Amino acid sequence: MGVTKTDIFTNQQNKLAMQLKAIAHPARIAILQQIIKANACICGDLVDELGLAQATISQHLKELKNAGLIQGSIEGVSICYCIEPVAWKNLQNEINNMFASYKDVNTCC
Amino acid sequence: MGVTKTDIFTNQQNKLAMQLKAIAHPARIAILQQIIKANACICGDLVDELGLAQATISQHLKELKNAGLIQGSIEGVSICYCIEPVAWKNLQNEINNMFASYKDVNTCC
DNA sequence: AACATCTATCGTAATATTACGATGGATTAA
DNA sequence: TTAATCCATCGTAATATTACGATAGATGTT
Fold it and tell me: For a Cys staple, B26 with which of A9, A27, A59, B106, CB 3.0–4.6 Å?
């Protein structure tokens, strides 16, 4: 027990859950917002912007990267992160579809 | 340690993270999809539809309810769940804003 | 009242997440 | 080369999540 039963769900459901989970943390939301806002991808600035330790920020960046939502490239001594456009738009579509499938006929409850 | 530092983030960031976390599980995605599909809110049918124990489904429903995304009403001996329209649309907007704020200028990384 | 049905909750075990200090590897500057 | 800077990773403690059996409460049926 204690582990999610991914085998009884579809690949689509598992992937969507995995990517949503990557976003579902205030620090990672703040990181994404900062990356989007600054466009010219930030790196260690995130440590100053948010009030978290460097190791913690690095860990959050790793999760966003593992989910495929951001990408990083070496920029001199520091590392530059930015949105991974394809995954970002795919996720946007998946979420849109999910929300759009709900028709507010409200004939229940 | 081990607890999310909500105090250093905005209410908006915390709320969005909280609601996204509620959705960020394949079982809860499947539950939401089923509720939307059936419209006429299901209840114990979810236990049959998904391959999870009744206690587990009930726990997932509770989390969706705590996040304000669904509502339940007593329907005879069983309980009928459906989408909470207001929260659902608010969340849809919040997510849309987040994704829409990204302009694919790709001048980095 | 007695019974059946449905669901919420309790208790619990296994695992995952969160945060941070400390350390090490890579790159640039002196 | 030496020192400085930046970041990833390791190790770890505290807490949260996930899943399920067992049980209890509520409603409907006989």
Answer: A9
Residue nearest to nucleotide D18 (CA to C1'): A2
Residue among B11, B20, B52 with most chain A CBs within 10 A, to mutate: B20
Of residues B99, B45, B33, the one with CA closest to residue B75: B45
CATH topology of domain B10-92: Arc Repressor Mutant, subunit A (1.10.10)
The pLDDT tens digits of the residues spanning A84-102 come to 999 999 999 999 999 999 9
CA distance B10 to chain A (A): 8
Token pair recorded at residue A93: 């579509």
Q: How far apart are CA A94 and CA B96, in angstroms?
A: 12
CATH number, domain A9-93: 1.10.10.10
Ordered by start, the domain boundaries in chain B are 10-92
Q: How confident is the model at residue B106 (pLDDT cuts 50, 70, 90)?
A: low
